[in-house]
Design a protein that fits this description.
By secondary structure, the chain is an alpha/beta fold. It is 42% helix and 12% strand. It starts with a helix and ends in an 11-residue tail after the last strand. 39% of the residues are buried. Residues 594-614 are annotated as: Disordered. Keywords: Membrane, Transmembrane, Transmembrane helix.
Length: 777
């Protein structure tokens, strides 16, 4: 591979040859050939100047070398123009002599370029020896304390360091020299630059190092040998003055690097966090042990966050917390080693509707393993999570496996945590939500159970009377826009940080002891028609539907420890589930414990024929002794509903499972009565979704269903295939409002699955008898 200096020089010689022979080939005037060559050479010099100063190839060159290289290129171009002029003066009949002279010129310029490259980059510059320091003042040197002598030594050492830095500045390019001057004007000129990385075409990320000589000057005041985050303001002011353009304070971000005395300073000239980053999905399995990408930093690089820890999301309403939470949900729901539980008392439907509506009327597993709505079901979910953790922690090492991690996501947590009137049962005792949240934070992590909660304020009173314990156990923290200016300082430990201004912009403390980082979360377009459409990329329904084959289940032992409420949860999105989430008068399928007050733990005498009372298993969910045994039929039915295999459970697990069923039968009289009270039916069947009509439109019993009408519309069309929009318009013209387009799209997909329609292309459908197609859905 030829060096670039040979290629460019030979190319210039070929162009000179072509321009010089113009009069002989096209009978052009000699002066025209010289003029054309001169103009073209000037254009090439201007282009070369831009390339030398902005190309990636010359990124490591110093500014002085770039200037000298540009001058050499201009001199070479002048020589080639002179060669054309010589040819016109001596006459075209001497073209052979002129051609040999031109070849010699190319060889000479190539040799000069090689020599300059060796001199500039490979030959070490000579360094003049430092002059010997002058002898110190005899009076000062004779001071008994020696303070004066030490001071002179410090000044001499610092002066030597300054000389070295000045010599190193000769190797800095224009960008580094500009930044060096800004640091000097801001009072941080003592920092040593270690290079930089461009941030596209609107910024740079500089690496700086505290020199050891600075420690000698700082003395005992170590703050003078560090770079605080508050230094971003004076640096931004200095850069704005030098660049003749306004800069926001947050456009300069200082971050401590792991190495001692090392910092990175990111500088941008655009509002990067004000940009919109559409979410890009991945359709491959992931692991919760790998950090999740939660957004992009000021340098536009991806930012990652480990999720196997407790965490909190703080920010006022409409600050963009949901954009980050949806991004985390999208990652967790494709992790093969994690299940997601979602709970809340207020606005829960707003969070989950985009993930669930697309599954209405289908028989696919939902992205969430369990969704609990309302104060009672929320505290019961927390009790179940703690029971799962205690069950796992009580297992011998020989019986432990790679349990799936349980992430409990509590939205608008303050409503549930401040409520002390609603209680759940854990280990036979009564607890309210704040107590259970604190217990999970303090003792569930080793059982692979973690609590992530979102709330609008960070003060302890907003998190109940256990708010201090709850916040103390939070591993990661995200702080969004909020009116309380001190919130960012309390959460991030730095009161100099600015409050985020844009939706989806937040400060991140990843829990690893790193400096807080300003991040912009990607945005998944919501399907709520009342929300603005910010981009035409993926919607929540698109991402949710892509999760239909990412099936993750809780292990059998943990499912049993979670209790009957977990067993009776909704696993298909039906109109009843929708009514439960929206707050309509519908009995939720998770009222297994009974009233808000728990059962009192008792220890009755064992009946005849029974040596000891049946006690709870290791899960600890309902460790209440009972005086009667559970019926085997009820135990088998509950196991079927929970999707667990009793034969694969240990003796302790089976005992705990039977205890739960026995307690329910003792309270309700029978297991069928329990099911009747909770779900309105005594049939303990699994939960495949029944074929409901969409709730927005209930046809007359004598009328045709929506599916029949869709097939009829396509069959009666004059031409096939028929567009989806045409089918939708025909349905609405026939009186069907079709207010839920995801439900309509699911209906089309089911018709394709059953063979009544053929999907010819995206949004195009036909009947099998009128269109032959090799494509099947």
């Amino acid at each position: 591979m030829l060096p670039y200096k040979v290629v460019f020089t030979c190319g210039a010689g070929v162009l000179t040859l072509a321009f010089g022979m113009l009069p002989a080939i096209f009978e052009a005037p000699p002066l025209a050939a010289v003029a054309i060559t001169g103009v073209f050479a000037a254009v090439c010099v201007l282009i070369a100047d831009r390339l030398v100063h902005g190309s990636r190839l010359t990124r490591g060159w110093s500014y002085k070398v770039k200037v000298l290289a540009t001058r050499f290129i201009a001199a070479g171009a002048t020589v080639f123009v002179a060669a054309v002029l010589v040819l016109q003066l001596i006459g075209i009949r001497w073209w052979a002599v002129w051609l040999m002279g031109l070849a010699a010129t190319v060889l000479v310029e190539t040799g000069v370029a090689a020599a300059l490259e060796y001199y500039w980059f490979r030959l070490q510059p000579k360094v003049k020896p430092e002059p010997e320091p002058k002898p110190e003042n005899s009076v000062g040197a004779a001071a008994p304390s020696g303070v004066t002598a030490v001071s002179h030594e410090v000044v001499r050492t610092a002066g030597s360091a300054v000389t070295v830095l000045e010599r190193a500045d000769l190797q800095l390019d224009h960008t580094q020299l500009l930044f060096k001057r800004a640091l000097t004007e801001a009072g941080f000129g003592w920092l040593a630059q270690q290079g930089y990385k461009p941030i596209h075409d609107f910024g740079a990320k500089f690496q700086v190092q505290v020199p050891p000589e600075r420690l000698a000057l700082a003395g005992s005041d170590t703050s003078k040998a560090s770079l605080p985050t508050s230094a971003a303001e004076p640096i931004a002011i200095a850069l704005a003055h030098l660049m003749r353009m306004p800069l926001q304070s947050k456009w300069v971000n200082i971050r401590k690097e792991p190495a001692a005395g090392a910092y990175s300073i990111s500088v941008v000239t655009q509002d990067v966090t004000g940009r919109l980053y559409p979410y890009e999905d991945c359709l491959e399995w992931a692991s919760l042990r790998d950090p999740a990408r939660v957004g992009f930093g000021l340098d536009t690089e991806p930012v990652f966050l480990p999720l196997r820890q407790h965490g909190q999301h703080i920010g006022q309403t409409r600050s963009g917390k949901s954009s980050l939470i949806n991004t985390l949900i999208a990652y967790i729901t494709r992790c093969r080693d994690a299940v997601l539980w979602v709970c809340g008392t207020e606005k829960l439907y707003d969070l989950v509707m985009g993930w669930l509506e697309i599954y209405l009327g289908t028989d696919f597993d939902l992205p969430f393993d369990w969704v609990a709505n309302g104060p009672q079901d929320t505290v019961d979910m927390l009790c179940a999570a703690m029971s799962v953790a205690r069950y796992r922690q009580s297992q011998p090492l020989s019986q432990r496996t790679a349990w799936p991690t349980v992430i409990v996501l509590m939205d608008e947590a303050s409503f549930a945590l401040r409520n002390k009137s609603v209680r759940g049962v854990y280990n036979g005792q009564s607890y309210y939500a704040a107590q259970m949240g604190a217990m999970i934070g303090q003792g569930a992590g080793s059982g692979e159970v973690f609590l992530h909660y979102a709330t609008q304020r960070d003060t302890n009173d907003q998190l109940g009377d256990q708010g201090g314990d709850l916040q103390a156990q939070a591993g990661f923290t995200t702080a969004f826009r909020i009116k309380d200016l001190a919130t960012i300082g309390r959460l991030m430990g730095d009161y100099k940080l600015e409050v985020p201004r844009h939706k989806g912009e937040f400060w991140l403390d990843d829990g690893d002891g790193n400096y807080p980082q300003l991040v912009k979360a990607p945005y998944i377009q919501e399907v709520d028609p009342t929300k603005d459409k910010l981009h035409s990329g993926l919607t929540l329904s698109d991402v949710a539907w892509a999760r239909r084959n990412f099936v993750r289940r809780l292990d059998a032992g943990s499912a049993a420890a979670a209790g009957p409420k977990y067993a009776a949860r909704h696993t298909r999105y039906t109109p009843a589930f929708q009514a439960y989430l929206t707050g309509a008068p519908c009995i939720a399928p998770a009222r297994a414990v009974g009233p808000s007050e728990p059962l009192k733990p008792t220890t009755p005498a064992a009946p005849a024929g029974q040596t000891e009372p049946l006690t709870g298993g290791a899960g600890g969910g309902l460790a209440v002794a009972v005086a009667v045994e559970a019926s085997p039929e009820a135990v088998a039915r509950l196991a079927q509903m929970a999707g667990v295999d009793l034969t694969k459970m240990s003796a302790a697990e089976q005992a705990g499972f039977a205890t739960t069923v026995a307690e329910v039968e003792q309270q309700y009289g029978s297991f069928d009565a329990f099911l009747q009270a909770q779900t309105g039916t005594a049939a303990a069947t699994p939960s495949p979704a029944p074929q409901y009509a969409p709730p927005q439109y209930t046809p007359h019993p004598a009328a045709k269903t929506r599916a029949d009408r869709i097939v009829e519309i396509v069959a009666d069309a004059d031409t096939q295939p028929v567009r989806r929009a045409v089918i939708l318009a025909a349905l609405r013209a026939d009186g069907d409002p079709v207010t839920s387009e995801p439900s309509f799209q699911n209906g089309l997909a089911k018709l394709v699955d059953t063979g009544l329609l053929i999907k010819v292309d995206t949004g195009l459908y036909a009947t099998p008898d009128r269109h032959d197609s090799r494509e099947t859905a």
